[in-house]
Specification:
Layout: H1 7-22, H2 31-46, H3 49-55, H4 57-66, H5 79-103, H6 117-132, H7 182-185, H8 198-212
Helix pairs in contact: 1-5, 3-4, 5-6
């Protein structure tokens, strides 16, 4: 198991951290301080059930023996399961935020003690992706069973952490999609919402997008009984991690 649900971002930050050590930007602590720091970090992680299950073999085995498949933790609609997932991701991104500061990484997620709005948005969207996409209820014999797949999720809460732009839904149900180009898969993008000087540019951009990407035409073969087309979302959003300048260095834990 990787430390994050965003392994490429984590790998990039760790590369910057390694470079900082190699170039002397970070002074290596003593062996005693290293052990103390790692022990402290481990104690924090052991308080989280998901993380501990991946560290402690005995805990993981007891987990499997004690909980059956009907336990609330395995029910995607249970608020307690979502809260557990949120807590796990929050702790992981707190560690990442700390490493970003130490390595002077050119992006800011806050500090170990307090994540900023962008980090909280990433955590929220990760939970949505895990619970509201993969957990699409597939009921055999239901009115939507002829078209619904695990990809037919709701993109309402998926948006860019940089601009606030919402994810573009699929043109139609997954099974109705034809072709592999962007225009074959994606529906009409959400309008840009800019204010002030950027408003006129946003209006022009929205008109251009509407011109080059017509509204989707969904096959009537997979429309539900109410005649409403279910919109599916692009499951993962590309985070535009642009340069924001160097951040302040210093551990906060």
């Amino acid at each position: 198991m990787g430390r994050l649900d965003a392994p490429l971002l984590d790998l990039d930050v760790q590369a910057w951290l390694l470079l900082a050590h190699l170039t002397g930007d970070i002074t290596l602590p003593s062996e005693k301080d290293m052990k103390r720091f790692n022990l402290q970090a481990l104690m924090y992680e052991l308080q989280d059930p998901y993380i501990r299950a991946n560290i402690d073999k005995n805990y993981d085995e007891h987990w499997d023996d004690s909980l059956d498949d009907d336990h609330w933790m395995y029910q995607f609609g249970d608020k307690r399961a979502r809260e557990m997932e949120t807590n796990t991701l929050t702790l992981q991104y707190r560690f990442l935020a700390r490493d970003m500061i130490d390595s002077s990484y050119p992006f800011d997620l806050g500090t170990y003690k307090k994540l900023n709005g962008k980090a909280k948005a990433i955590v929220e969207m990760s939970v949505v992706s895990g619970f509201d996409f993969h957990s699409v209820q597939l009921v055999e014999g239901s009115r939507d069973s002829s078209w619904k797949t695990f990809r037919d999720g709701n993109p309402t809460n998926i948006r860019s952490i940089m601009t606030g732009t919402k994810a573009i839904p699929f043109k139609c149900h997954w099974l109705d999609l034809e072709g592999d180009g962007v225009d074959d898969i994606c529906g009409t993008p959400a309008p840009l919402n800019l204010k002030g000087k950027g408003k006129s540019k946003a209006t022009a951009m929205n008109k251009m997008l509407q011109a080059i990407r017509p509204p989707c035409v969904t096959s009537r073969a997979h429309v539900d009984e109410d005649g409403r087309d279910a919109k599916a979302a692009l499951q993962s959003e590309i985070l535009g991690l642009g340069f924001r300048g160097l951040v302040n260095r210093g551990r906060t834990m």
